[in-house]
Amino acid sequence: MAAITMKNIVKQYGDGFPAVNDVSLDVQDGEFMILVGPSGCGKSTLLRMIVGLEDITSGEMKIADRVVNKVAPRQRNLSMVFQNYALYPHLTVFENIAFPLRLAKKPDEEVRRRVTETAELLELTEHLERKPANLSGGQRQRVAMGRAIVRQADAFLFDEPLSNLDAKLRGQMRAEISRLQRRLGVTTVYVTHDQTEAMTLGDRVAVLRKGVLQQVGSPRELYEEPANLFVAGFIGSPSMNFLPATLDSSAEGTFLETPLGRFGLPDKITAAEIGDRDVVLVGIRPEHFEDASLVSEEKRARGTVVQAHVDVTEWLGNELYAYVPYEAPEDLAAQLRDLSRELDSDQLRTQAVVALDPASMISEGQEAELWIDTSRAHIFDPATGENLTRDEERVAALGRQAEQARLRQRQAQAGQAPTGQAGNGATQAKPDQEPPTSPD
Ligand SMILES: Nc1ncnc2c1ncn2[C@@H]1O[C@H](COP(=O)(O)OP(=O)(O)O)[C@@H](O)[C@H]1O
Ligand SMILES: [Mg+2]
Question: What span is annotated as the signal peptide, if there is one (predicted)?
Answer without folding.
Answer: none
